[in-house]
Amino acid sequence: MGSENDLFTIPIMSNSQSTKLFTASCLALVVTAMTFAIRAGILTELNETLGLTDTQLGWVNAMAFLGFPVAMMVGGLLYNFIGAKIMMYVAFVGHVLGLVLTITAGGFWGLIISTFCIGFANGAVEAACNPLIADMYPKNQTTMLNRFHVWFPGGIVIGALVSFGMTEVNLGWQLQIATMLVPTAIYGFMIFTTDFPESKHIETSTVTNIKSLVAPLYIFMIVCMTLTATTELATQQWVGRILQESGAHPMIILALGTGLMAVGRQFAGPLVHRLHPVGVLLASAVVSAIGLFLLSITTGAVVYLATIVFALGVCYFWPTMIGFVSEYCSKTGALGMSLIGGAGMFAVSIWNPIIGGWIDSNREAAVATNPGLDESAIELIAGQATLTNMTVFPIILIVAFGILFALRSKFEKGAHTKGDDSPAPQEG
Fold it and tell me: How many CB atoms lie within 10 A of CB 274?
């Protein structure tokens, strides 16, 4: 296996099949991440060229986050029967169809349909790859899941830079969307030319999976996931719209923040081992709240500093939540990993139009209370007020993870002494 300190490296293993599938999974996640980044980068252009309001843009964003959990729920339920192979085929078809329909969309409803297709494809990637990787690397689950999820922020960096560069040279939003067809074709070729292994190291009894979903610990983590995902992904999705008048370039903000997240996830192992997964989640909630607060009050170059704080806060949310479920709620199997991710994305789909409405209402309030201000100042006030509203998510998480941290000895004992064969936490 490659050195744990080699940033962005794909582990080299004796099993070429596993290596190829891991690589294909990472590329598929890159496409998933690029859809988030490029969509964030073109929101303002969609507003101008198609005449969409921020509330309508919120509904378009919501379709991506709605399609994602639908695919994860369906994929989680069917994984034991159809396996990762069919799910990856579905992801490939969904990406191609969604990207082509987006390029040819001429208005609100065209974007609604195409964005849902892309969201469904993104969810299929997660539904297939999380259990596939956990199954291929049973003795190294935490490390490999973190390395896989490096490529979500890594893909957002790629997408943000692509959007920034193409926007600077006046290449339209359709061409920006079209760039994602290239990595899609590459991972499609890889999955169609590779044999997938049978599941051997994860719980494959659907009945057992379903029964395990009602465990209090799993339900608690589902609720928390709705807040961690919204804190991270909703902010990233709206950064271009919210901070466009802050004096810092939104796509540079996105690239900087997600680049730091990628680095942090690559070196997550020692931190998780030292602080415990729940300790990492609690610290992440605290730092995220501070980061969002700083973003809501700063302008100019200081925004980049606030971005660094926020990125360090949300960095470990998603992979640590998935890893926690795989270790402490292992009886839920692929279904459990899919549903917790699906719950997070479903929450973001609900909050997206609400956040778009916040921007519209905060803009109206700014105009009413600050007559005579120019449009740029109004947009800045509205954006910062919206970020203030969003700070409530990590504040709630501080309380939730604080309680979980205090009770960690109980669920650890329950996971490893009451018939649960989940592995002990790994150093990664």
Answer: 10
DSSP code, position 247: S
- Written as six digits, the tokens of 155 are 């893909």
Instruction: Please tell me whether residue 1 adopts helix, strand or coil conformation.
Output: coil
Cβ–Cβ contacts within 10 Å for residue 297, how many? 12
* C-alpha separations of 159 from 30, 71, 164, 395 in Å: 9, 23, 8, 30
Note whether 269 and 4 are within 8 A (CB): yes
Closest CA to 226 of 104, 131, 349: 349
With contact defined as beta carbons under 8 Å apart, do 415 and 425 qualify? no
From the first residue on, what is the mean pLDDT of each consecutive set of 10 residues in the chain (428 residues)?
A: 42 65 95 89 81 83 84 89 92 96 89 93 92 82 79 87 87 92 96 85 82 94 96 82 78 82 79 80 96 92 91 90 86 90 87 89 90 86 92 97 88 54 37
Closest CA to 60 of 48, 73, 47: 47
Within 8 A by CB and 6+ apart from 176, the residues are: 38, 41, 42, 162, 163, 166, 167
Query: How many other CB atoms sit within 10 Å of the CB of residue 200?
Result: 9
- Tell me the CATH number for domain 17-195+205-417: 1.20.1250.20
CA angle (121, 56, 254) in 5-degree steps: 60
**How many Å apart are CA 336 and CA 328, to the nearest integer?**
11
Q: Rounded to 5 degrees, what are φ and ψ at 118?
A: -65, -45
Q: Quick one: angle between helices 235-242 and 54-103, nearest 10?
A: 110
10: DSSP letter: P
How many other CB atoms are found less than 10 A from the CB of residue 308?
15
Residue 91 near residue 393, CB atoms below 8 Å: no
The domain locations on the chain are: 17-195+205-417
Q: How far apart are CA 45 and CA 241, in angstroms?
A: 10
Angle (nearest 5°) at CA 336 between 335 and 339: 80
